């Protein structure tokens, strides 16, 4: 049987062998941790603690009244030493609560197992998940309880846990599936139950046969859990492409997975949902792949949220040379940074340090119109033309050519023989179009 | 760690090894069998014409860019390929100055004046050939039979009719065997006669994924089907179709000229249409036009239609809604 996949996409070297066989190691948090106030998409949080306050492990240190937000918890016990602007992994400064770790890990009151989710109503389940501060851990940071609250007229028929992990280098989801399969399955069952469904799907790329086998083994007694192998191809794990491969349904342009009755969760997110119920523990840790040619001993590290990148790099044996590039996330969609003095946040799936010779820097040359970008675009757009119009500042034409449908996966820039910065220009065009739309909306009011 | 040495750039942070130069090098490699056949059949003069053409194209591009104070881009290999293709499209009897004029039209007029690599609206080599054919029609059709040409063109050299001219009835002569047509043992331009050599090069380009099968297959297929359906007077359908696709540079055009990235459609559907259009036009020009052969003009016409094809044959975007292409707000 040919494996399920989507049309388009690329086959980069997945560079996963440095870490995919390495068990997750636990990193003890250092003396000082940093908690940026906005690690999710949505409303900003307000600090619930002041400088000098003592905090305990799992205590809410910032929250918001808004539905479109999740609380933030202290991942250690200690004292708040500062609240101010600190560097965030995306390169901007953000209001941040700084906690000095006392090393005691004194648990906050009220942390303990929650009732069996089977006995809870959907509202109660969502409340537990929000209270645990859970967001999509694949990188975007969309609040999970919001995702689990689709409009009433859009019934969910597919619950999908996304174990594709198609980004090169990253192996954290792979290791979580291998080492914590029951937690992943528990999370899938909670969400399945929430929507009153019998089935849940876990989709995994074929390059992780051990993860597929492990999950199948652990789900052997549950015929409502379906482990689906997908073809290895980037961006197989992109939400829309994953849904299409699995169900044949296409999320409409500008729409959400719920429009086609689908709900997609990240592997680590599913595992966090499990911990929120079985231990009552909020999201205070995550698994991060630390890799790249400049890292001495690439590793999968379980770290507390708030630990600086530098400590994770040290845990992975330190750097072998002056790095040429530091990336948060994978090499296809991750964000390049300029400092290791930024904290791990809820969406940090990987930290990559590239040697200078691994850094792809080449000047742009003229577009040949070879059409490789058109062949690989998983959204079936025309990157070469969008790039030309964006370069001329003709954003109206970009809008007409559906630039807003671009998922910024990077396939076009990856294959371009003229090394044109296709995604970069399309990202700029998207922002320009959105700003223009916002202005038009404001003017019409 | 010094943050001044860190590269902070937009994703993706890894790139494929593919480059423009590598692609052009592949095209040049793929042309080697055809060039060798040209040298075997038309002597060392075929090599001389090719060298003159390549040196002229690369040299003119260099001079022009220096003169205009532009970045010199001869290292991208596109001028090399244009030079090779121009030579493939010339008779081995061509005088050297004519080759230089062809290179001038190709590189300066067709390519650089429109913005250089990637901006020409017709295939530069074909533009050069079309100009030469219009300006010096006799010199451009001075074919000789294989194995008769020395380095210099003797004035009493017997000219040889191309199979297509014989087929059309505009020239006297005995049709060569199909095997000679396939091997290239016939009169014609330097690089167009050997279907076998061109096919080898074409397969190399397909394997290297430099080109897709869409344009060559739809081009040759369409021409074969039309020739089969409407054969010339007194000829067997299959034989006529075979002569049609083996003669007159169809393989050179289909694999190397019509597939030129810059002047062919960017989408898969558009490329199929391009091939079909080339096939139809080649047939129509050969059957109803004054020339016995129509590949170059067919491709040039489809080059000009390419922007239109790209405008109307866009791929359907992922998740397009029934209400049309507009984005759901």
Features:
heterodimer, A: 445 residues, alpha/beta, Rossmann fold, six-stranded mixed beta sheet, four-stranded antiparallel beta sheet, 13 helices, 17 strands, 27% helix, 19% strand, globular, B: 329 residues, mainly alpha, Ammonium transporter fold, 14 helices, disordered C terminus
Record field, number of beta strands of chain B? 0
CATH topology of chain B: Ammonium transporter fold
Largest sheet of chain A, order of strands side by side? 1-14-13-17-15-16
Measured between the Cα atoms of the first and last residue of chain A, the distance is: 55 Å
Average pLDDT rating of chain A? 94
Specify the number of helices of chain B.
14
Sheet with the most strands, sense and barrel status of chain A: 6 strands, mixed
**Taking Cα atoms only, what radius of gyration of chain A do you get, to the nearest Å?**
22 Å
The beta-strand count of chain A equals 17
């Amino acid at each position: 049987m040919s494996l399920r996949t989507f049309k388009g996409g690329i086959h980069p070297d997945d560079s996963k062998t440095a870490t995919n066989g390495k068990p997750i190691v636990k990193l003890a948090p250092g003396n000082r941790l940093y908690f940026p106030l906005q690690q999710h998409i949505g409303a900003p949080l307000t600090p619930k603690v002041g400088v000098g306050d003592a905090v305990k492990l799992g205590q809410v240190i910032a929250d918001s009244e808004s539905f479109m937000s999740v609380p933030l918890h202290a991942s250690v016990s200690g004292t708040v030493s500062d609240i101010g602007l600190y560097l965030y992994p995306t390169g901007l400064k953000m209001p941040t609560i700084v906690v000095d770790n006392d090393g005691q890990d004194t648990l906050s009151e009220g942390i303990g197992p929650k009732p069996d989710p089977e006995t809870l109503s959907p509202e109660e389940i969502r409340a537990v998940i929000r209270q645990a501060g859970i967001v999509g851990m694949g990188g975007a940071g969309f609040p999970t309880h919001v995702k689990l609250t689709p409009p009433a007229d859009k019934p969910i028929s597919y619950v999908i846990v996304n174990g594709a992990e198609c980004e090169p280098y990253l192996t954290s989801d792979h290791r979580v599936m291998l080492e914590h399969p029951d937690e992943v399955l528990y999370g899938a069952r909670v969400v399945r139950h929430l929507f009153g469904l019998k089935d849940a799907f876990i989709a995994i790329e074929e390059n992780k046969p051990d993860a597929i086998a492990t999950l199948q083994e652990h789900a052997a007694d549950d015929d409502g859990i379906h482990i689906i192998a997908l073809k290895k191809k980037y961006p197989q794990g992109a939400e829309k492409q994953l849904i299409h491969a699995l169900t044949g349904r296409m999320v409409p342009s500008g729409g959400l997975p719920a429009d086609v009755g689908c709900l997609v969760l990240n592997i680590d997110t599913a595992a966090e949902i499990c911990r929120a119920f079985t231990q009552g523990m909020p999201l205070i840790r995550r698994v991060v792949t630390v890799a790249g040619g400049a890292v001495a001993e690439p590793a999968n590290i379980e770290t507390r949220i708030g630990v600086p990148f530098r400590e994770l790099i040290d845990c992975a044996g330190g750097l072998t040379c002056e790095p040429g590039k530091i990336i948060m996330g994978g090499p296809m969609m991750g964000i390049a940074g300029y400092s290791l003095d930024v904290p791990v946040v809820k969406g940090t799936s990987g930290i990559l340090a590239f040697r200078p010779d691994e850094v792809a820097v080449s000047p742009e040359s003229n577009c040949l119109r070879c059409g490789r970008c058109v062949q690989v675009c998983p959204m079936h757009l025309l990157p070469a033309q969008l790039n030309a119009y964006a370069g001329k500042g003709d954003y109206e034409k970009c809008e007409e050519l559906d630039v807003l449908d671009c998922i910024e996966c990077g396939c076009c820039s990856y294959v371009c023989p003229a090394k044109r910065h296709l995604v970069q220009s399309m990202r700029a065009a998207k922002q320009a179009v959105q700003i223009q739309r916002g202005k038009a909306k404001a003017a019409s009011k | 760690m010094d943050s001044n040495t860190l590269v902070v750039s937009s994703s993706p942070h890894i790139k494929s090894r593919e480059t423009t130069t590598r692609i052009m090098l592949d095209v040049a490699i793929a042309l080697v069998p055809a060039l060798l056949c040209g040298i075997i059949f038309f002597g060392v003069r075929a090599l001389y014409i090719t060298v003159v053409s390549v040196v002229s194209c690369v040299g003119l591009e260099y001079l022009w860019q220096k003169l205009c104070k532009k970045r010199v881009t001869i290292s991208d290999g596109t001028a090399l390929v244009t030079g090779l293709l121009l030579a493939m499209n010339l008779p081995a009897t061509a005088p050297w100055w004519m080759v230089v004029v062809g290179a001038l039209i190709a590189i300066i007029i067709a390519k650089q004046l429109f913005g250089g690599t990637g901006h020409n609206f017709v295939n530069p080599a074909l533009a050069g050939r079309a100009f030469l054919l219009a300006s010096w029609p006799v010199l451009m059709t001075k074919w000789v039979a294989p194995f008769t040409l020395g380095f210099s063109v003797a004035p009493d050299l017997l000219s040889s009719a191309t199979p297509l001219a014989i087929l059309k009835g505009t020239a006297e002569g005995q049709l060569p065997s199909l095997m000679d047509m396939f091997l290239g043992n016939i009169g014609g331009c330097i690089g167009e006669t050997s279907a076998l050599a061109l096919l080898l090069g074409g397969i190399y380009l397909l394997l290297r994924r430099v080109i897709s099968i869409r344009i060559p297959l739809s081009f040759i297929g369409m021409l074969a089907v039309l020739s089969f359906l409407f054969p010339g007077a007194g000829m067997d359908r299959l034989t006529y179709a075979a002569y049609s696709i083996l003669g007159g540079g169809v393989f050179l055009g289909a694999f190397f000229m019509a597939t030129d990235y810059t002047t062919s459609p960017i989408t898969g559907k558009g490329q199929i249409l391009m091939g079909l259009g080339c096939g139809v036009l080649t047939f129509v020009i050969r059957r109803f036009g004054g020339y016995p052969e129509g590949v170059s003009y067919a491709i040039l016409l489809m080059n000009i239609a390419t922007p239109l094809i790209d405008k109307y044959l866009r791929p359907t975007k992922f998740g397009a809604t029934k209400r049309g292409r507009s984005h759901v707000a």
